[in-house]
Amino acid sequence: MDSYQLGSIYEIQPTVNFIGHAEAAAGIAWGPRFIPDYQLFHIVSGEAEVYYGAEHYVLGPGDCTFYGPQVPHKLVVIRPVVYFSLHFQLRHSSPEPQHPAYNIQPCSEGDLLQHTKLNYYLGIPNHEPLLIPPVFSMPALESIMLRIANEYRNEQTGYAIVLRALLTELIASIVRDRLAARPHSLERTKVDPALRAIAMHPENNWTIPQLAALCGYHVIYFSSLFKKCTGVSPKQYLITERIRKAKSYLLGGEKLETIAGKLGYTSIHYFSRNFKEETGLSPTEFKQQEQ
């Protein structure tokens, strides 16, 4: 297995070239091919496979695959997917998107099979170089991916600069998540009972004392530890998990009143406000956009 050094995180000037937020039916494939930039492919729902040489990985909801220029690869949809496909450069003086389509090149199955997958390493001050593997799971990326997609689609004044800022935020989020996932990092395992409880029962109005008790810690210590591990407060994490499930319910055709009730909201107004704060869209706008 080969490795590639991406340089220091302090040196990057990331540029969004393209982002797609779409659905794909079973059997659709991209590749085998080479791309001219980096790509982050994130599964919202459904199932796909990614091939690097003789190795392949199955991707499910929340999973990502990441690869760079001139890396032969192939993506195949197993079950209908909703996905984000983000193409970007890590170092470019201009933030203006440069669509990669004209420089995507097909390759043979032989080229694909001969390739050894790359592990990418990003330099982080005061840390060992951070591994960004070809496949990893990070469901929380959906929210910022949606913000990038909306900004890219709308092209409002200054959108290229906003895209650069959002992409920088996305990269920082991945870095924090990967640092927390390192084998020597035990902090995240300490809050796993709380994370599982929220994921299984987002409709509960979880209090910090309840979540702290599940983990066996004092409220003050738990709150500090939770934010260190997830980047947000327990309250914000619960809201994000609720909105993630709300999107699925909306796409399934359920009514706002039903969804709000399922997710523990006593007010449709409060549910709609949370939804817009998380996604930038009202529930109705989100459903129309997906349709």
From TrEMBL:
UniProt key word Transcription regulation: yes
Protein name according to UniProt: Uncharacterized protein
Pfam families, alphabetized: AraC_binding, HTH_18
Listed InterPro entries: AraC-bd, AraC_XylS_family_regulators, Homeodomain-like_sf, HTH-like, HTH_AraC, RmlC-like_jellyroll
Classification lineage: Bacteria, Bacillati, Bacillota, Bacilli, Bacillales
UniProt keywords, alphabetically: DNA-binding, Transcription, Transcription regulation
Domain of life from the UniProt record: Bacteria
GO molecular function, one term: sequence-specific DNA binding
Gene3D superfamilies: Homeodomain-like, Jelly Rolls
SMART domains, per database record: HTH_ARAC
Keyword Signal in record: no
